[in-house]
Amino acid sequence: MEAELLGPVEELKDARVLEIGAGAAQCSRWLRAQGARPVALDLSHRQLQHALRIGREDIGLVQADAGALPFADASFDLACSAYGALPFVAEPVRVLREVRRVLRPGGRFVFSATHPVRWAFPDEPGPEGLTVSASYFDRTPYVEQDEEGRAVYVEHHRTLGDRVRDVVGAGLRLVDVVEPEWPRWNTQEWGGWSPLRGALLPGTAIFVCVRDPERG
Predict the structure, then answer these.
(1) pTM summary value
(2) What would the pLDDT profile of 44-74 be if each residue is shown by its tens digit?
(3) Can you name the residues that pair with 212 across neighbouring β-strands?
(4) Does 151 reside within a domain?
(5) Which among 20, 161, 212 is positioned nearest to 98, based on CA atoms?
(6) Theoretical Cys-Cys bridge with 158: which of 23, 32, 141, 162, CB 3.0 to 4.6 Å?
């Protein structure tokens, strides 16, 4: 928000914005407050129900697969995703191509994911989370199963280079990769996130992409 990666806040007014993997549509509510016309998309009906309970505030809610977006070509000015969709699909290029398709020429897509380097470290907030425990290059998905052996959570690892190649391979132009530093005022721990780890390791990677007009 403060970084204005989607563009100046004043230019968001009346912009049609697609939030992918929206969860409870937190980003869409912020966008609506700035005067944008957001649509929040998520595969999970339960997440969208949660968004309804919080309040829609004139936000479009759509349940759909991010790899098969139910929108016409060039129907959005901007798109964004905050830790949504892309880390949880085996074929991220498919999603990125769909995003490119629904963006107008010149439109921007900004998405964030856990920084790839974190894959090599235990998800622990203390000193034990500072020692490499796995190969950064191991792309074996992380899978959680229920008592019957069914996958209930799957997250796919992509290296930083993989993410760059995915973006370029989808026909988008990569404008920037932002690695936010841990803010000094934040003294909280949450999951594997902590001031200790944040001072030494990047927690988030943000990719800023554009659909170039000349590429059709």
Answers:
(1) 0.94
(2) 999 989 888 887 678 999 999 999 999 999 9
(3) none
(4) no
(5) 20
(6) 162
Q: Which one-letter amino acid corresponds to residue 92?
A: P
Tokens encoding 41: 């998309």
Query: What length is written for the chain?
Result: 216
Q: Which residues contact 23 (CB under 8 A, 6 or more apart)?
A: 42, 44, 47, 50, 51, 84
Number of domains in the chain: 1
The reply to whether 165 falls in a domain is yes
- Tell me, yes or no, whether 138 lies in a domain: no
- Domain assignment present for residue 179? The answer is yes
3-state DSSP of the chain: CCCCCCCCHHHHCCCEEEEECCCCCHHHHHHHHCCCEEEEEECCHHHHHHHHHHCCCCCEEEECCCCCCCCCCCCEEEEEEECCCHHHCCCHHHHHHHHHHHEEEEEEEEEEEECHHHHHCCCCCCHHHHCCCCCCCCCCCEEEECCCCCEEEEECCCCHHHHHHHHHHCCCEEEEEECCCCCCCCCCCECCECHHHHCCCCCEEEEEEECCHHHC
CATH number at residue 168: 3.40.50.150
Task: Tell me the pLDDT tens digit for each residue of 144-192.
Answer: 999 898 998 999 999 999 999 999 999 999 999 999 999 999 999 998 9
Do 121 and 202 form a contact (C-beta atoms < 8 A)?
no
Taking residue 105's Cβ as centre, other Cβ atoms within 10 Å add up to: 13
